Amino acid sequence: MLLKVETHFNVRNVTFQGSWLKTNPNNTLLVTFDNNNAIRNLRLKNSPELSLPDVSLYFKYLDEDTQGEYELQINIIFPGIRSPVAVTKRVTVTVSVPVSIPVISKTPESELVEDRDNVTLTCSVEHGTNVQFKWLRNNIMVGPSERHTFSQDYGTLVISPVKKEDIGQYICKAQNHISSNLSKPTELIVFYGPYNLAVNSDQGRKTEGMFIVNPEELVFFECIADSNPPNTCVWISKTKNGTEVLMTGPRFEVKPYELPQGKEFLCRAFNNMTKKQDETKFTLVMARLDTVMKTIYRRPMTEQRGLHRSGHEDATEDFGIYEFVSVPGKMDSTQASCRSLARLDSVKDLHTTIYDVIRHVPETPTLSLLK
């Protein structure tokens, strides 16, 4: 950088002496000079130079310390004039420095619990002028919200309180009008849950909080919930006299042939970090799950013309596969037609499940039987 000083007279015909100073942010003497000599301040790491008799100030390289306000003070004695002429000139220098790689710091560094803790993420650079910051979580921009607040330059992000959806990798982008850089990812971990607690089993058929299992089978149940860290699970049996803790752990083994009909169980999940818990209950019913009937009935709509109309010719939604599963001992009658079941308001009251597997109206006449 050259701070050019222009003269409108022959500098070789005058006598002068003066100095260059940096007046802001600190008052610092840079160099003193006269017609023949220039003395630089060698204590400065970036000491500027003069090429006499030109008193323009020259910097070999620029950094953030170069930025500031400068002042030239000079006394000139012209031929035939005894009194020197004092001249003072000022200039402001703005230096744009490329941003260095930003670094993220997190406060606190300890574990974070959902709905309880706050976290502050700070992005900083060692070098750079007029820096602005942006935040990304899993490569998606993070903006202001009720829980997300930022400093004026977006260098600080405060999340209050943290929630499950704040989990992810955070990256800070530092930029000015000449450069930009990305930080290394910082992982934010939040303890949460349990959510969406459910009991599943590969052997049993589940419907409305009830598992129907074959009496001779050994059945395994799993208690699953969305939680971090994983839950502590407790299996409990419920009776008229109270409850009994059977075991702890996510997996539960049951021998149905050793249990009374309609046995009720409960799974309770507890998160040791969030101190929250949830529970779900289910009833175990023993019955043979034999398929009574599977069939497909297809009839083209064109064949309906001219036939005796029974009121069902346009019931296109009746086409499909139906599976009838009957649980012994739970129905008053040993037989139930498709029409009677369809009229019932609550099929589950009969402990009977109907599965509509396929709905399809064929384009061509066909009659098939699904084995």
UniProtKB/TrEMBL annotation:
SUPFAM superfamilies to which the protein is assigned, alphabetical: Immunoglobulin
Gene3D superfamilies, sorted: Immunoglobulins
Localisation: Cytoplasm; Endomembrane system
UniProt cross-references to PROSITE patterns, sorted A to Z: IG_LIKE
Domain Ig-like: 102-183
Assigned keywords, A-Z: Cell cycle, Cytoplasm, Disulfide bond, Glycoprotein, Immunoglobulin domain, Membrane, Signal, Transmembrane, Transmembrane helix
Signal peptide positions on this chain: none
Principal location listed in the UniProt entry: cytoplasm
Protein name: HEPACAM family member 2
PANTHER family associated with the record: HEPACAM FAMILY MEMBER 2, HEPACAM FAMILY MEMBER 2-RELATED
InterPro entries: HEPACAM_domain, Ig-like_dom, Ig-like_dom_sf, Ig-like_fold, Ig_sub, Ig_sub2
Topology class, membrane: Single-pass type I membrane protein
